[in-house]
């Protein structure tokens, strides 16, 4: 997962991502830095931040 693209896509709003997923900001950071998000999480992030399927795929498949 490309962390920089992810942070850009969510405008650095890790607390907002956490709210959308029912997680703490630290939990979101742990997922970003370690295992990434599962598909239902990506769908929630996509809806919350108006991301396209192409943006999500680019974030998931590209490396930092």
Q: What is the mean pLDDT?
A: 95
Shape: globular
Number of strands: 0
User: Which stretches of 5+ consecutive residues score pLDDT under 50?
Assistant: none
Task: Report the end-to-end length measured between terminal Cα atoms.
Answer: 7 Å
Strand-residue proportion: under 5%
In terms of structural class, how would the helical and strand content be classed? mainly alpha
Helix count, DSSP H or I runs of 4 or more residues: 5
Task: Please give the share of residues in helix.
Answer: 55-70%
Largest sheet: none
Q: Indicate the radius of gyration in whole angstroms.
A: 10 Å
In short:
With 64 residues, the chain is mainly alpha-helical.
Q: Topology of this structure?
A:
Elements: H1 3-9, H2 14-21, H3 25-33, H4 39-49, H5 53-61
Helix pairs in contact: 1-5, 2-3
Top keywords for this entry?
single chain; mainly alpha
Textual characterization of the structure:
The chain has 64 residues and is mainly alpha-helical. Helix content is 69%, strand content 0%. The protein has five helices and no strands. The longest helix is centred in the last third of the chain and has 11 residues, at 39-49. The model has no long low-confidence stretch (mean pLDDT 95).
